[in-house]
Known about the structure:
The complex is a heterodimer. Chain A has 18 helices and two strands. By secondary structure, chain A is mostly helical. A two-stranded antiparallel ribbon of chain A has the order 1-2. The longest helix of chain A has 29 residues. Chain B has one domain. Helices cover 74% and strands 4% of the residues of chain B. Chain B has 13 helices and four strands. Chain B has a two-stranded antiparallel ribbon. The longest helix of chain B has 32 residues. Chain B is globular and about 60 Å long.
Amino acid sequence: xxxxxxxxxxxxxxxxxxxxxxxxxxxxxxxxxxxxxxxxxxxxxxxxxxxxxxxxxxxxxxxxxxxxxxxxxxxxxxxxxxxxxxxxxxxxxxxxxxxxxxxxxxxxxxxxxxxxxxxxxxxxxxxxxxxxxxxxxxxxxxxxxxxxxxxxxxxxxxxxxxxxxxxxxxxxxxxxxxxxxxxxxxxxxxxxxxxxxxxxxxxxxxxxxxxxxxxxxxxxxxxxxxxxxxxxxxxxxxxxxxxxxxxxxxxxxxxxxxxxxxxxxxxxxxxxxxxxxxxxxxxxxxxxxxxxxxxxxxxxxxxxxxxxxxxxxxxxxxxxxxxxxxxxxxxxxxxxxxxxxxxxxxxxxxxxxxxxxxxxxxxxxxxxx
Amino acid sequence: xxxxxxxxxxxxxxxxxxxxxxxxxxxxxxxxxxxxxxxxxxxxxxxxxxxxxxxxxxxxxxxxxxxxxxxxxxxxxxxxxxxxxxxxxxxxxxxxxxxxxxxxxxxxxxxxxxxxxxxxxxxxxxxxxxxxxxxxxxxxxxxxxxxxxxxxxxxxxxxxxxxxxxxxxxxxxxxxxxxxxxxxxxxxxxxxxxxxxxxxxxxxxxxxxxxxxxxxxxxxxxxxxxxxxxxxxxxxxxxxxxxxxxxxxxxxxxxxxxxxxxxxxxxxxxxxxxxxxxxxxxxxxxxxxxxxxxxxxxxxxxxxxxxxxxxxxxxxxxxxxxxxxx
Lengths: 369, 326
């Protein structure tokens, strides 16, 4: 049963399995185990990032191509919900129209970009997605009639998932039973379903072909797979997952603006999470997102403390200032690409493989890391 | 010896300019826009030439090229501020004597940082495109943040020296003096580059390396050294271009490198990766397109250059001058 649910792609490391179960349990029980607005926001952000990053892993980790337009699709999803809800009012129809419209736009855009750039050379893809994403970001802040410009859009959603909706007066186990809670569990179920769907995709024959292309494009083509088609389909799928993650974000925040969903900083976060978690594993996205979002939410306070400690040395204080958070992320990113390319999941699996005397399991672990 | 010159791409920029003539409505506006576009194109070319050679020679796709643009501009702003007497005076000679050292220092610093960048960031990931893209992007982020640490995250004004401000009028068209200077410097760099590539031993080796690296190595030349030289020169050119871009915009933000990077990528894709001549054509096209569309329909500006690239690639999928057969 569990094997079928995970598409027979088990963690293959006891430590990894324990960590994953702990993360899933913590997320499932977050509203009760960690009361408070900030904790729940962090948990919801983790859910959104898991979907966003896992979708990116399909492209980077499994297919071996880099896209810098992932946040563009993330933004399309968020804007889809935001614009539809602003125009059509707080109804489920609006949410449906927003999701459908955003998915359609992402599909068309990713098909166009993919066919166009992957047809020529795979490395064009990285450059062209970067250009398109930059242009899209400018467009989104300029078309303020639709997008609210730099200010973004605040909107209402159907009452049942809004904080003001309470279906019980008495709190249950320390959590108030309101629309916020329902909304959280809606996100949780959606995120779980999407991650399982991704596991299904990467372990299907289609996913095997993607990995073959990653390992040796020329051979994959020679065996008779149309590399361009497979890469394009992978980039479209990845775009759709990013779009859905964007929809989740907008539903949770009931707000969207360019900095929330389109900024390049989010793209950097996604890259870092994929690399830290472990490329080409999907599970890496789960671990990476949890670690990273928690670190981002709480470690910036630590950085502020450190910066105050060294206030006597202005230069050091400037480097340690929380505003320079991205500097440390960048360093961490470069170092992990060098020294830690398989990420947490890869390391754990390799440790397990080295541990096991059975050579076949070692080979299996090498084959996927 | 006669060589067949592929003349069709050479016509692209004039054709684009001619198409824009009826659209802009007035000849003087068109002339202003065209000169502005050509000046912008020359600056972009200076920046893009290094990147395209680095790719052509060593198959290294440097997403961190933007760092050198921003670095050059910020260094130049500090130098100009130090020479306030000269850059603030109204004599053209003194102004130029302030601007040229600023450019030189910007090039030196950008080149030196380029050397470190090549050693620390690019060297360990030769031959691995995926890691190159990730690592150089990481280098770009680090560089941008360090610029924020040194010069502060806010926008910095970079006023043009007195004598370079303002415009001269040719047939009722306002042509800013600085753009003329930019065109002169751009043409000088192009001439120097073209001469080096076409007429010197080093240029010969670079061109040969772009076409077939292994063969050059087999003939006993140390392509690694050559590559470092090209990388440093490319970084220095990016620093020069960044200085000129900063003076063009008259203000600097730390993110300027990333912004220009997007244009540069479009340019080298249009030109054909590895081709300097192609980069020049691509840069002029992008510069002209930016100015025409920026005047006619400002909202569409960022997409116009992408549309241009799409059109060129539909015509020649490898860029206008395909060089590298990898």
